[in-house]
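Q: Hi! First time doing this. I have a protein sequence and I read that you can turn it into a structure. Is that right? Here it is:
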Amino acid sequence: MHSYAYVADSRLDEARRALGLQTSGGRAPNPRFFTGFLGDSQQAATALLAIAKVAGTRYFQPTTERLRDPVVTCNGDRLRFESFSGCCGVYARLDVLSDALDGEVHDRGTTNVDVNEPLRRALARVTKGDPLHLTVGPDQVEFGTLDGAVVEKKVPLPPRWLRGFAETQVLTSRFDLKAELTPADAQRFLRTVPKGRAAVWAVPAGRSVRLSGSASANAVCLAGPNRLEVLMPLLRFAKAVRLYGPPADGKPVASGWEVDLGAQRLTLVLSPEVNRGLSGEGAVLDGLAAGDADTDAELVGALLDFEPRVDVPDLAERSGLTVVRVRDALTQLGTAGRVGYDLAEAAYFHRELPYEGTDVQAMNPRLRNARALAEQDAVSWDGATALVGGHRVDGEACTCTWWVEYRGGRGKCKHVLAADIVRGQA
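A: Yes, that's right. Below is the predicted 3D structure, encoded as structure tokens:
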């Protein structure tokens, strides 16, 4: 006879139209995602401390409040640890690939835990050759070192992080590789960057990069250079450092910085300015405004299974949707934290963040206001120009104060979105 224990009740969530079924995890009373050792333990411990440091730092308007709540996902062949800074201007992710895992994958899933002082001290004492054992479950993560075991319990995630996850996966999907540095070149570069908050540009120069006050071809924006200091302890383990960014147009933009550690990778994404959080960039609005995004997201979401690399053309074939509609659906899923983007592999990945009853429109007031304008028949046309609520919309330009101030730098205004919605419906 076997005894089965369930971690929670099965339930029907009418708001999300989802049925959540709990299992007993087989014969195990406490289900697990992964149990085993992390290879290159000192390197892994240093990288985990970097993830926790980002989560515990506010780079804009510092306060005494400290958050250290990494999100942990088991994608089958790898573990991912993700966090945002307290100001939401820096995103960090550690990917521990299969060659750095020595253990058993029991299941796939996501959880989030706090990183308290006892764990930070334990990780700081890990030296080369020391064992670093890890058990990841749906409600806790346990670290084992020579000093003993430290258990971190699941905690609520800051609501603003959800918008940050959504925006970051859209922004980074538009990045290209701009430069690759050797560890020695990366150390020299980071030692020379200014300590101020003003944006500068890293411009490829031979096998290295140089700083410039203006953008040029393949330049990578570096806003708040001090935010890269968290990478310095990792450079002694690095194989290479890679720089990513969107096409340079002279304005401050987000950037990506990846430290290749061999079987592990740490990626940092910086917002365009220190006083701008990644949660407010408006990158998701195009995908969310697409007419069929809600329905398509339900279909595409049902096909996801914690893949470490989401194959968009394969999803298009399996769902019967176009590649464009699949990408819009992934954006919609990203608003619930279900999709991320891996710069190194130029691919989306699947996770399930512990947020309940996500209201997309509440999180994106511009989208809510744009849909209201469309429903109120506030959009009319003068040839190719849209007239929306007393403003003229020509392409992505508008006469409203939002567009005049930001010039599209923080996504489309509600008037442009309303015109897009009406055009899409037509």
